[in-house]
Automatic annotation (TrEMBL):
The gene is LOC116203202. Keywords: Electron transport, Iron, Membrane, Metal-binding, Mitochondrion, Mitochondrion inner membrane, Oxidoreductase, Respiratory chain, Transit peptide, Transmembrane, Transmembrane helix, Transport. Gene3D superfamilies: Alternative oxidase. Its EC number is 1.10.3.11. InterPro entries: AOX, AOX_sf. Binds 2 iron ions per subunit. Pfam families: AOX. This is Ubiquinol oxidase. PANTHER family: ALTERNATIVE OXIDASE (PTHR31803).
């Protein structure tokens, strides 16, 4: 009898402990019955736990609520659980992801009532570009750092001209993968500086991250019209890795130099997009319809073309040129960026 009590005690620890060993002492006539019930409970508990813990190599397709509901009601069919959790509609069509954490997708619509299909940006993050900006501004390299930045950009452009030549669609793709790096690196470093110095950034963190996001949207737009080859993707990966680390180190050493490099890089971007427009006007590049993502992001009118997209992208690059040369001038005067309000939304 003591042996039975000890064995049941061990089983109770392994499964769901519904009663203690002490409750079994003195029970002789029902020992076998209790033992069988305990084993059944252990098997049922093990089955529930093994179902809830999905294998590591399986995608998590159910929400937390669906898993909990299935564990509580293991005998109900999958369709019933999904229907009560809000995962399926008529005909088993997926409605949305229901989460135990209270997060649910928000349905966003356009001004005309149609559904907004972009998750990477929302209607209130779109804008109309200003193509009337002066494209001919140039920051004359006077100091040693200015000249170093200027010739660094010229050295970067030389192999690009050889590799891409007049394939401006792929050139734009490469350019944007590099141009989206400085804003993220600068914003990240200013963010860390603001944290360890317990001070504000004057809005420059947001301005630089806004620049990085804008450049990334340029890439997303050109990816729709330019299909890079595998070796071009490999080149992007290599160039981005080198440029990220080089720019990170350069910004740590001299923010003035780093912003000046970006300013000259944007001047070269303006030149490249101007040549892109000439190729479109000459008929060497087909003026295809503008991608849907570009029409929504820049609020372009229906029926816009690739030429319209290049126009607004070039205007964005001109605005980034001004912002980075402005930041470089602030450092040139021996000040920090936060003393001047950041030009948030300047593009």
């Amino acid at each position: 009898m003591m042996m039975i009590g000890r064995n049941c005690g061990r089983l109770a620890v392994a499964g769901q402990r519904l009663f203690t060993t002490a409750a079994l002492r003195g029970v002789s006539s029902r020992a076998a019955q209790l033992n069988s019930q305990l084993l059944a409970g252990l098997v049922r508990s093990t089955m529930t736990v093994s179902w809830a813990r999905a294998p590591a190599n399986r995608l998590r397709n159910e929400s937390t609520l669906a898993l909990v509901d299935r564990a509580n009601h293991p005998h109900r069919p999958d369709e019933k659980v999904a229907e009560e959790a809000g995962l399926a509609g008529a005909g088993g069509e997926e409605k949305g992801i229901v989460s135990y954490w209270g997060i649910s997708p928000v349905k966003v619509t356009k001004e005309d009532g149609t559904e907004w299909k972009w998750n990477s940006f929302r209607p209130w993050e779109t804008y109309k570009a200003d193509p009337s900006i002066d494209l001919k501004k140039h920051h004359a390299p006077l100091t040693f750092l200015d000249k170093l930045a200027y010739w660094t950009v010229k050295a970067i452009r030389y192999p690009t001209d050889i590799f891409f030549q007049r394939r401006y669609g792929c050139r734009a793709m490469m350019l944007e993968t590099v141009a989206a790096v400085p804003g993220m690196v600068g914003g990240m470093l200013l963010h860390c500086k603001s944290l360890h110095r317990f001070g504000h950034s004057g809005g420059w963190i947001k301005a630089l991250l806004e620049e990085a996001e804008n450049e990334r949207m340029h890439l997303m737009s050109f990816m729709e019209v330019s299909k890079p080859r595998w070796y071009e993707r490999a080149l992007v990966f290599a160039v981005q890795g080198v440029f990220f680390n080089a720019y990170f180190l350069g910004y740590m050493i001299s923010p003035k130099f780093a912003h000046c490099v970006v300013g000259y890089l944007e001047e070269e971007a303006i030149h490249s997009y101007t040549e892109f427009l000439k190729e479109i006007d000459n008929g060497n590049i087909e003026n295809v319809p503008a991608p849907a993502i570009a029409i929504d992001y820049w609020r372009l009118p229906p029926g816009s073309t690739l030429r319209d997209v290049v126009m607004v992208v070039r205007a964005d690059e001109a605005h980034h040129r001004d912002v980075n040369h402005f930041a470089s001038d602030i450092h040139y005067q021996g000040r920090v960026l936060k003393v001047a309000p950041a030009p948030i939304g300047y593009h």
